[in-house]
Amino acid sequence: MADETKAPEQSAAPERPRSEGPRSDRPGGDRPRFGGGGRGPGGPRESGGRKFFRRKKVCKFCVEKIEDINYKDYRLLGQFVAESGKIVPRRLTGVCAPHQHRLSSAIKQARNIALLPFAGRAS
Amino acid sequence: MNRTYELMFIVRPDMTDEDLDKLISTLQSAVPSAGGNLVKIEKMGKRRLAYTVRRFHDGIYVLLVVEGGGPVIHELERRLRVTEPVIKFLTVRIDEEQKRLDKIKKIRDARKKVSAQPAAAGGEGAATPAAEAPATA
């Protein structure tokens, strides 16, 4: 899946400077890139023609030096839970592996004591 | 065997304060007899539950911090299980996590001190040339 979307992007990148002149072929050329860009977070990928920089994701816990990921702190944990109640994967949030590990266990503990929902929004 | 545990439990929302205090005091008395030591009692108040538990939407959260081994927790959990107004409880061991946090804190404090000392020395160094500068001019 990931390879399919990556392929057109990589091939499109060298073409970008050349297609600067004729603007008419741009929308067509942009299409696969746009779809590919929208689906995943990825790193700081620079897309040529459109001046669009993806910010590099950083681990919130490393940056703010939050070491204590506790199940009682449901407000903090809530930031890493999707609307459906799922734990957001770290490829989307940018949390580093050791912190995601603690985070997920804390969320599971919080669910157990009804601070966070198993499914759906907290009523 | 000295471990620290955190017991969080939820009692039904329609419980009165006196009943809650009575319940907590019975648990409190059960701890030393099982060979433990109660460190902290915290009533966290009424809160809306994230999902319904035994048809309740709200609950009163109480947190106990207990020192002791497994038998203490076993006894407390047994009591919570048979106590009717308690609708949910969770026990978490916290001493190892606390140890880890203390270690990190120690490292950070040590680093802070190290970074503070050169800064102070640099400040003094900068002050003396500044004092000399007017003399030369």
Which terms would index this structure?
heterodimer; A: 123 residues; mainly alpha; 30s Ribosomal Protein S18; 2 domains; two-stranded antiparallel sheet; 49% helix; globular; B: 137 residues; alpha+beta; Alpha-Beta Plaits; 4-stranded antiparallel beta sheet; 4 strands; 53% helix; elongated; disordered C terminus
Structure write-up:
The complex is a heterodimer of chains A (123) and B (137). With 123 residues, chain A is mainly α. Helix content of chain A is 49%, strand content 3%. In chain A, strands 1-2 form a two-stranded antiparallel sheet. In chain A, β1 and β2 form a beta hairpin. By secondary structure, chain B is of the alpha+beta class. Chain B has a domain of 91 residues: Ribosomal protein S6/Translation elongation factor EF1B (Alpha-Beta Plaits), CATH 3.30.70.60. Chain B has a four-stranded antiparallel β-sheet with strand order 2-3-1-4. In chain B, α1 runs antiparallel to α2. The C terminus of chain B is likely disordered.
